[in-house]
TrEMBL record:
<feature type="compositionally biased region" description="Basic residues">
    <location>
        <begin position="385"/>
        <end position="395"/>
    </location>
</feature>
<keyword id="KW-1133">Transmembrane helix</keyword>
<protein>
    <submittedName>
        <fullName>Divergent protein kinase domain 1C</fullName>
    </submittedName>
</protein>
<comment type="similarity">
    <text>Belongs to the DIPK family.</text>
</comment>
<dbReference type="InterPro" id="IPR022049">
    <property type="entry name" value="FAM69_kinase_dom"/>
</dbReference>
<dbReference type="Pfam" id="PF14875">
    <property type="entry name" value="PIP49_N"/>
</dbReference>
<keyword id="KW-0472">Membrane</keyword>
<feature type="region of interest" description="Disordered">
    <location>
        <begin position="374"/>
        <end position="395"/>
    </location>
</feature>
<keyword id="KW-0812">Transmembrane</keyword>
<feature type="domain" description="FAM69 protein-kinase">
    <location>
        <begin position="139"/>
        <end position="346"/>
    </location>
</feature>
<dbReference type="GO" id="GO:0005789">
    <property type="term" value="C:endoplasmic reticulum membrane"/>
</dbReference>
<dbReference type="Pfam" id="PF12260">
    <property type="entry name" value="PIP49_C"/>
</dbReference>
<dbReference type="InterPro" id="IPR029244">
    <property type="entry name" value="FAM69_N"/>
</dbReference>
<keyword id="KW-0735">Signal-anchor</keyword>
<keyword id="KW-1015">Disulfide bond</keyword>
<dbReference type="InterPro" id="IPR011009">
    <property type="entry name" value="Kinase-like_dom_sf"/>
</dbReference>
<feature type="domain" description="FAM69 N-terminal">
    <location>
        <begin position="9"/>
        <end position="74"/>
    </location>
</feature>
């Protein structure tokens, strides 16, 4: 990784231009080990690495620190005869400028409903410290990256987004997780779960997890995520690019959104949807769609479908198909589940909220029942094996 980043990046760290909790390990101690490049285009870098033995993904939207817009306040201090390199700002200043940038990035009005500035402000007050120019310049470069801002804001509020573990200048480290694959019939690979550093509830000998057992548990986590994104923030959060590759799972089978370039809170979603149109087709923004009002030739600002409907259509329907289930496909519980998924995929969730809630509850109940059935069957299999062993010993 030294060859790739450290030449210029670490020189700037040594000069006091940028900083972060990852810098010392990256530039001095050599505790960050480069594994492979995952993506590199138009200056955007995404790399797999190991930080103190923990797999991480290192990201930056632009290649060089100097490519990011400088914090105007720091430039003002320089021209106004500030004290230079040691100039510091108060925690309140940091919260104020960070809040403005978050508002602009996420399209949120930061009123009394947005909890983050208060939450961060409280933490900063407890620290009772000021912030150096290098810290502020690094923070400002990070806040100009929409994904960083989004993940950093939400990771304090939900377990369903990837966690940022640290940063150095404009580079930030995100937890490495087992991502989904469109070509894998189970979507998530059991083998890849071993790479994820999060604790596993199945690490003991008493429970072995199979791909078939994994599917309903992960599906339940998808439903929990949908409900969470819809109801638990100041505004609903819309996912406009729903496909297996944009989600990952931790070892505890929690579903995590890992690509949030196409995730928008309600105010920004309305701005995106409300465009000129001549037909409904003009009102499709990837997986987020609305209707064309032909009297005004404008798309409606309210989304017609929902996160749940698209997840049912694109993820649940292939998952619970007779092809994947094989011999089990004809069982009453599986047939009921397939019907519920089909109904869910066809519902216009944005328009019929009551029906959407009922379908979600039905799916949840069926998945819980399926997990209980699988657990009981596994218990019977274990008991059968135990009896067989005893018979063999007696013989």
């Amino acid at each position: 990784i030294r060859r790739d980043i450290c030449t210029d990046h670490c020189a700037e760290y040594q000069q006091g231009v940028l900083t972060g909790d990852l810098c010392e390990d990256l530039c001095v101690a050599g505790r960050v080990e480069y594994k492979r490049c995952l993506y590199y285009e138009n200056g955007k870098k995404v790399m797999a690495a190991s930080w103190r033995g923990v797999p991480v993904v290192l990201k930056s939207k632009l290649e060089n620190f100097s490519s990011y817009e400088a914090l105007a306040l720091l430039e003002y201090q320089d021209t106004a005869g500030g004290t230079g390199g040691e100039e510091e700002l108060s925690p309140l200043d940091v919260v104020f400028y960070a809040t403005l940038e978050i508002k602009n990035s996420l399209g949120l009005e930061t009123g009394t409903n947005l909890t983050l500035p208060r939450l961060w402000g409280q933490k900063l007050k407890e620290n009772e410290r000021t912030y150096s120019r290098a810290e502020l310049a690094s923070l400002w470069a990070l806040l100009q990256q929409e994904e960083y801002t989004f993940l950093r804001v939400l990771q304090d509020l939900t377990q369903h987004v990837a966690k940022i573990l640290g940063s150095c200048g404009h580079f930030y480290a995100v937890e490495y997780l087992a991502a989904g694959h469109a070509w894998d019939q189970h979507i998530f690979s059991l083998e890849e779960l071993t790479l994820s550093p999060s604790p596993s509830p199945w690490s003991g000998q008493e429970k072995t997890i199979t791909a078939r057992d994994m599917v309903p548990r992960v599906a339940l986590s998808f439903l929990e995520m949908v409900e969470h994104f819809e109801n638990d923030f100041s505004h609903s959060l819309h996912l406009c690019d729903i496909k297996p590759e944009n989600f990952a799972i931790r070892k505890d089978l929690t579903v995590v959104a890992i690509d949030v370039d196409m995730a928008f809170f309600e105010p920004k979603m309305r701005d995106i949807l409300e465009q000129n149109c001549t037909s409904d087709n003009d009102c499709n923004f990837f997986d987020c769609i609305s209707k064309c009002d032909k009297t005004k030739n404008r798309c409606g600002p309210k989304r017609k479908n929902s996160n749940l409907q698209v997840i049912c259509e694109k993820i649940f329907r292939p998952w619970f198909s007779p092809t994947l289930l094989g011999a089990k496909a004809g069982l009453p519980l599986q047939v009921a589940l397939q019907r519920a998924v089909q109904e869910c995929a066809e519902i216009d969730g944005g328009e019929d909220a009551k029906r959407s809630r009922a379908v979600r509850k039905q799916l949840q109940d069926l998945l819980v029942e399926l997990i209980q059935e699988d657990t009981e069957n596994q218990g019977e299999d274990q008991e059968h094996k135990t009896r067989r062993v005893h018979t063999a010993l007696n013989f």
